[in-house]
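Researcher: We plan to redesign the surface later, but first we want a full-length starting point. Tokens attached.
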């Protein structure tokens, strides 16, 4: 999701409460800058030594 994309704006305009949790990696080479992985209103869960694409199939990430 990009900051202020239609999806995120739609969530912001909704009356439903939404909690965000962003999973991010210190070793993500696809999202630059790295702080772009986290929404300002979200809980951040950072992982070490896991690449961007590897997060979708990592046991530690999936447990969280």
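Model: Full-length starting sequence:
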């Amino acid at each position: 999701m990009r900051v202020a994309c239609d999806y995120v704006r739609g969530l912001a305009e909704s009356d439903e409460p939404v909690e965000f949790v962003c999973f991010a990696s210190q070793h993500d080479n696809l999202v630059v800058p790295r702080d772009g992985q986290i929404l300002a209103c979200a809980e951040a869960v950072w992982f070490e030594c896991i690449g961007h694409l590897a997060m979708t199939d990592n046991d530690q990430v999936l447990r969280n």
